[in-house]
């Protein structure tokens, strides 16, 4: 019987993949704490010894279906079409988890959820997966899950519940990684930063978004996923969170949805990335049989 042994919201923004010297320069003499946060996350993952990392990729936008990447493995060099002058030469080489992807499809079909496994060697990679794989120096199998753009919050939660059930039916220990930001409104192209340290929250797109993000982080620290989920359609989807919040909602859906009480431990500072609010947060699920996960 499989088990979810950990989960995290994790930033994937391109600045994290730049050289140490460049990041320190942009940070007015100090590096982004999200880089150190990725190392802290790696230590958390090592402690629970998963077989598979499930990455909810906010950049893999799909329409009509939640997709589960059933490829056996991928290797290559990533070049971003979004910002090729800035994010390029990211070599990657990792194993997939095709059996778990196919099991997700089976459970989706049983529950009449629009989910299917896709095994296509030429399927494009996205940096919301590649950057996380490389930041974590991932040795585990990787299952990437799409972010279906014509979904309401309940559909993401349903997709997460499918994945949670598939994990239970599998032989795997799994860590879930919600790859994306909280508030995701970019600053304008000619924006002038307010704080010399580019990562500083003063450089997030608006004070309202900072306040909303910090409120959400506080609720997550208390394990109040029920409140976050209840507010999502009218609050966090309108901020909006990256990918309509599909990364977080699928993650928490796999852990029990509104019944989940896993407390979120911030393992990095809250930082700006081109106006978006980024943070790494670790969730340790309650042991099976001792609470809702």
Topology:
Blueprint: E1 3-10, H1 20-26, H2 33-48, E2 52-62, E3 66-69, E4 73-78, E5 90-95, H3 98-110, E6 115-118, H4 127-135, E7 141-148, H5 153-169, E8 173-179, H6 207-221, H7 225-236, H8 246-254, E9 264-266, E10 271-273, E11 276-278, E12 281-283
Parallel strand pairs: 1-8, 2-7, 2-8, 3-6
Antiparallel strand pairs: 1-12, 4-5, 9-12, 10-11
Helix pairs in contact: 3-5, 5-8, 6-7
Description:
With about 290 residues, the protein is α/β, with parallel strands linked by helices. It has a single domain (about 5-285), classed as 3-Layer(aba) Sandwich (Protocatechuate 4,5-dioxygenase, Chain B). Helix content is about 35%, strand content about 25%. The protein contains eight helices and twelve strands. It has helices at about 20-25, 35-50, 100-110, 125-135, 155-170, 205-220, 225-235, 245-255, and strands spanning about 5-10, 50-60, 65-70, 75-80, 90-95, 115-120, 140-150, 175-180, 265, 270-275, 275-280, 280-285. The strands form four sheets. Strands 7-2-8-1-12-9 form a six-stranded mixed β-sheet, with helices on both faces. It has a two-stranded parallel sheet with strand order 3-6. Helix 3 (about 100-110) crosses helix 5, helix 5 crosses helix 8 and helix 6 packs antiparallel against helix 7. The two termini are about 15 Å apart. About 50% of the residues are buried. Mean pLDDT is about 95; it is low at about 290-293.
Structure summary:
The protein is an alpha/beta fold.
